Amino acid sequence: MLITHASQLITLSGGPQRGSDLGRLGIMEDGAVLIRGSSIVETGRTAELLAKFPAEETLEAAGRVVMPGFVDPHTHVVWAGSRAKEFEMRLEGKSYMEIMAAGGGINATVQATREAAYETILGQTRSRLNAMFRNGTTTAEVKTGYGLETGAELVQLKAIRELDHEGPLELAPTFLGAHAVPPEYSGNVEGYVDLLVAKMIPAVIAWWQENCPAEPLPFVDVFCEKGVFDLEQTRRILSCAKDQGFPLKLHVDEFENLGGASLAAEMSAASADHLVKTSGEDIRNLAQSDTVAVALPCTPFGLGDPHYTPAKEIIAAGGLLALASDINPGTAWCGNMQFVIALACRAMGLTPSQAIAAATINAAAAIRRADRIGTLEPGKQADLLILSTDDYRDLAYRFGGNLIQTVIKKGVIYPSASQA
Ligand code: NIG
Ligand code: FE
User: Fold this and answer.
1) For residue 20, how far is its CA from the centre of ligand 1 (angstroms)?
2) Mind listing the domains of the chain with CATH numbers?
3) Cα–Cα distances in angstroms (integers) from residue 14 to residues 21, 22, 27, 138, 375, in the given order
């Protein structure tokens, strides 16, 4: 199949974009893409590819933007229940961490998810994933973390695997057993860390070897935050995971600075995420590593907090910046990467081209899939979007709607529901 006449073919060719390199879109005007099966074979000018492949079936982009699908490298999309009541409590003056310390927050969703039937979890998550796909996300990382005991965490992992196989949205799993201290261990954080290290992480390995031995291990992530897991507890959990061969991720500096970003860099984590209260020293350490800095602007927006990730400082220091939705029932009930891009430009000062690169190739690097997805280059997976506009800047300039006309996943065409 040959996609022809893209007003702007956004190739993003050349790999992850560090520091001032961020925003190199590699735009080809009147562009075309040749797809065979699930892969991209060639990109070029429409006239050139039509002449070279005259017998090819064509898909007319008709003067619209063609670009890689969005990669969302940080989501908590598997959950049951609602926390609308907590949203209202926050508007009445309670803070997120106060609600969590009183037994609500993450543990409220843990209770709802533990009590839900497997089919309910699957059904609710599936409809959220389908909405993300219609809004242009073609690959998403998905965390466990609403089970917080071995069996319930494995149920979440199973749901992630099942929904990944179902498609079309492709999923990269993460074990987040260290998302919070469950009620059974209230006041005994060390006891829960012991359980994670001695029982839960080994159980994940055993489950993985039994169910998907040929696939790479999931990421292991920890919520490193004052009142959740401190730096030493985080180090213990991550060291255990790393020793057993897991790739790492980390939630850091969402509310307070504990030095987690430097720890992520030191341990060669794939990414350090949130980064709101990050110090200059942490930013420098991160920038000197291959750990991707993932900003989640929907989280402060969802909390009504005016503090956002210092994205410009991260770029100036030479860091690798990515964007993600963080979709979850507590802080950010939004999985729309178009909104993430529009918000990142306004709240963190990114340009539209920087935000787009951060939501595609750099987001792919944050889940260690930059070799397969995130750009339109020969040999890469055919995950593409056709927008309903001729100008990529509309993704940031306009907001609150859906500018995705067509999603192509592994070479298969899915019409979206653009309201443009
Ligand atoms: O990334 N910070 C921890 N995890 C989520 C919130 C999860 C929840 O509140 O349910 C976050 O913001
Ligand atoms: Fe998160």
Assistant:
1) 30
2) 2-68+372-415 (2.30.40.10), 70-365 (3.20.20.140)
3) 11, 11, 12, 20, 8
